[in-house]
Amino acid sequence: MEVDKENKPAARWIIRNVILAGLFFAVLLIAAQLGLKAITRHNKVITVPDFTNLSVADARIVAKRNAIRTEVVDSVYVKRMEKGHVFSQNPAAGSQVKKNRTIKLTINSNQTKMVKMPNLVGYSLRQAKTEIMAAGLTIGKLAYREDLATNNVLDQFIKGKYVAPGTQVEAETPVDLLLGLSPDDNQTFIPYLVGFTLPVARDNIFENSLNLGNVSYDETVQTYQDTLSAVVYQQTPAYHVGAPAAMGTAIHLKLTTSQAKIAAR
Predict the structure, then answer these.
(1) At what angle do helices 198-207 and 125-134 cross, to 10 degrees?
(2) Which of 30, 35, 225, 241 places its Cα 20 to 30 Å from the Cα of 182?
C-alpha cells in the first residue's frame, strides 16, 4: 500500500504534540507529588515521648530531638519522687501532635513541704488515720501494747522518736502509732487485696488493724506512673474466708500491671 507523503508532516506534528502533552502532564503530576510530600513533611505527626521521671533539662533534650517543645506549668510534692523531675505531662505520652507543639509539664517540687504534727494520743485508730491524712502525713507501723481499749492511740512516733504535736515535719512522713490491745479484743481478719492498687490495699490493711509489710513490683513496672496503676497479684499471708489473724500482722504485697497475672488468681 502506498503512503500519502503529503500527510506525513501532519502526522509527525500530531505525534510530537501528543508526546509533549504527555510529558507536560507527567511533569505536573511529579511536581504535585513532590509538593504533597513537602506539605506532609511540614505537617508531620509526631508521637509524644514519655517525659515522666526525667529532669526538666533531659525532657528538653528529648523534646528537641522529637521537634516539639516543653513548658513547666505546675508543680506538686511527691516525697517518693526525685525533686525537680517530671510528674505528669499534657498531652500524654503516645499522643499524636504536630511539629513544634508545646508539651505542658508538671514537676515534683524542688522545695520540701512541711506540715504540723497533729496530736493523736487518745484517738481511735480510725480517728488517728483521718487526722494523719488531713495533716498531709501517712500511717507508718502499728505496734500494740496491752491496754483496756483496743486500737486506742497511746503514743505517736516518727522513726522511733516521740514527736510532739505542732512540730514541723516533712509532708508524707510515716507516723508510727502505739495502740492499746485488750486481751478480750485482739483478733482481726486478713482482707482480700488482689486487684487493688497500693493506696487502696494499704487502706484496707490499716482498716483491719494490720501492717503493710514488704512491697515489691514485677518486671512490668518500669516507671513511677506504672507504680500508680499497678495492682496486687499476690499477698502474704493469703486471704482465707473467716480465718483470724493477730492485730499488727504484716501483709506483704507483690504488684503488677499485667492483667494476665491478675486473671490467673
Answers:
(1) 150
(2) 241
Overall CATH class of domain 45-108:
alpha beta
Q: Do 187-265 and 45-108 fall under one CATH topology? A: yes
pLDDT band at 239 (very low <50, low <70, confident <90, very high): very high
pLDDT tens, position by position, 111-164: 888 999 999 999 999 999 999 999 999 999 999 999 999 999 999 999 999 999
CATH number of 112-185: 3.30.10.20
